[in-house]
Structures are given as structure tokens and as C-alpha cells.
Write a structure and sequence with these properties.
With about 290 residues, this protein is of the alpha/beta class. The chain has helices at about 25-35, 40-45, 50-55, 90-100, 120-130, 150-155, 175, 185-195, 215-225, 255-265, 285-290, and strands spanning about 40, 60, 65, 75-80, 105-110, 135-140, 160-165, 200-210, 230-235, 270-275. Bound molecules: iron/sulfur cluster.
């Protein structure tokens, strides 16, 4: 997709952070290498890696690192996906236990090439982790499985603690940001989870700075609450390169604060809203917060 050339804007002071690299960071990297595991942290060049790795947490990316879709904000490679690694569920469970994680987050590329969209593999990963260490809570950040309820049911039946599915942006921008996705299909997926098992927390996330208006953002919040979504993340979009969707706006921290208050007013149990917030940033905090309010 060709974008109108928008002059690259200098980063505002609130988006300048020091890279952190600690011994724990290295431990995480070593374990990931040992078990041939991918993280969305590395694939998406997440700015919080240093902080999260230092806290021995990471978001594992399953089903390879090549996606069948082409979202214009995303740094993940697109093209012919790699074969599914049947050892991956077991390897992730061992890695999670070796890292001593309290809360494991599992995400994936979208595998429209697989008959079940990869939902069976997600279910195996969840049950392997729960077998390896019962005390660890599991969050899965899933694709939309093209809206297939039977595939979604496989993930729900594996009983993760949180099912996360990001709407990413406002419906008006889908054609240029997530051309193969469908906004209402994504909101519906969250609604189905609650309808099928209300003890599972649901979560969604949106990036700002792609050209959306405040009214459009609040409309998305309202749609998510109508789908009984519990947790919400709101962060600043950062373009991985000049070939990706341009940054239209650097949103001021005051606006993130205002949106957090609006979202709590609407009834979300937990809201993380800030320039550096990403969908699995401080993930375990959402769960402990949500449980307190049940
Ligand atoms: S579906 Fe997910 S991994 Fe694939 S391009 Fe879109 S955001 Fe990236």
C-alpha cells in the first residue's frame, strides 16, 4: 500500500526512553534461543523489551514469524508461512517454567493458511503450560480465525485466564491499516468468548496516532463495553519504518489520561493507557486487578 508522504515528525520528549539491558535480559534471550522460540517483543521491535525482559516476562509468538496478512502498521514478516512446529507447545511450557514467569502471554501471526487457523495449536500451548506449572496464569492474544466459532471454541475450552484480541484502530481506518480484518468480526469475537465462558477475562487494544478522532476512539470503547470486554490497552502507534503506515499524530500523555478516565467511566475493569502501552504490557497487573473486582 502506497502512503501519501507525511514529513516524519521529530519524536516528542515523552517518547524518548533509555534502552535497558540487564543480566535478566540476557537470560531471556538465551532461553528463547535454546528452545527456538519467537517473541513478538523482538519481531515487533517493542520499546518496552528492556523493561519487560528485565522483569523476566515476554510475549511468545507461536506458529512461526511469517504472517498471511499484511497489516500496514505491523513489523512482522508477511508471505509464505513456515510449517507448524509440533514441539513448540512443550518448548514454550518449559521456557515459561525456566523463566519463573507468573503470567505467560502467547500470541501468533495470523495463519489463514491452516484449516483451523492455528486454534488447535493455541489450545495445546495453553494446556502444556498449565500441565508444566499450574500456578502460572495464561493470556492468549489471538487472531480472528476468520470468525470461525468452532476454532474460537478450541481456545476457550483450553481455559486461558485472559483472551485478548486487538481491534487495533477505528473502523474507518481498517481498509488502510488492517485490510484483511473486519472491525465487527473482531468485536464479535470478544462477545462470543463472554457468551461461551464468562469466567474468562476478555481484553482488547487500540493504537492511536493513525488519524483517528477522539469521538471515533470513544465509539470503539463503547462497542467493546457492549461486547462485555473487561480490559483495555491504549498506546501510541510507532511506525517500524518509513514503508509502514505513517504516524499522523503523537498523542499527548494528557489525552491518554483523559481516555483512561473515560474508559473506567464506561465500566472497564482495567485500563492501561499511555504512549508506551502495548497489548501485553504489564499484563499480569490487569489480571490481578480484574480478579479483585470479581
Ligand atoms: S495479522 Fe497480526 S502479525 Fe499479521 S500483519 Fe497483522 S498485526 Fe501483524
Amino acid at each position: 500500500m502506497i502512503f501519501i508522504k507525511i514529513k516524519r515528525m521529530p519524536k516528542p520528549e515523552w517518547l524518548r526512553i533509555k534502552a535497558r539491558s540487564t543480566i535478566d535480559h540476557k537470560i531471556v534471550e538465551e532461553i528463547l534461543d535454546k528452545f527456538h522460540l519467537n517473541t513478538v517483543c523482538d519481531e515487533a521491535a517493542c520499546p518496552n523489551r528492556g523493561e519487560c525482559f528485565a522483569k523476566k516476562t515476554a510475549t511468545f509468538m507461536i506458529l512461526g514469524n511469517v504472517c498471511t496478512r499484511g497489516c500496514t502498521f505491523c513489523n512482522v514478516s508477511k508471505g509464505k508461512p513456515v510449517p507448524v512446529d509440533s514441539d513448540e507447545p512443550g518448548n514454550i511450557a518449559i521456557a515459561v517454567a525456566s523463566l519463573g514467569l507468573k503470567h505467560a502471554v502467547i500470541t501468533s501471526v495470523t495463519r489463514d493458511d491452516l484449516p483451523d487457523g492455528g486454534s488447535g495449536h493455541f489450545a495445546k500451548v495453553i494446556s502444556e503450560i498449565k500441565k508444566e506449572a499450574q500456578h502460572i496464569t495464561v493470556e492468549v492474544l489471538i487472531p480472528d480465525f476468520k470468525g470461525a466459532t468452532e476454532d474460537l471454541k478450541k481456545v476457550i475450552n483450553a481455559k486461558p485466564d485472559i483472551i485478548n484480541h486487538n481491534v487495533e484502530t477505528v473502523p474507518r481506518l481498517y481498509s488502510e491499516v488492517r485490510p484483511q480484518a473486519n472491525y465487527h468480526r473482531s468485536v464479535d469475537l470478544l462477545k462470543k468468548v463472554k457468551a461461551m465462558n464468562k469466567s474468562i477475562f476478555t481484553k482488547s487494544g487500540i493504537m492511536l496516532g493513525l488519524g483517528e478522532t477522539t469521538d471515533e476512539i470513544l465509539e470503539v470503547f463503547k462497542d467493546l463495553r457492549e461486547a462485555n470486554c473487561d480490559f483495555l490497552t491504549v498506546g501510541q502507534y510507532l511506525a517500524p519504518s518509513s514503508a509502514h503506515h505513517p504516524i499522523v499524530e503523537y498523542v499527548h500523555p494528557d489525552k491518554f489520561k483523559m481516555l483512561r478516565e473515560e474508559a473506567y467511566e464506561m465500566g472497564f475493569l482495567y485500563v492501561a493507557s499511555g504512549p508506551f502501552v502495548r497489548s501485553s504490557y504489564m499484563a499480569e497487573e490487569a489480571l490481578s486487578h480484574g480478579k479483585k473486582q470479581q
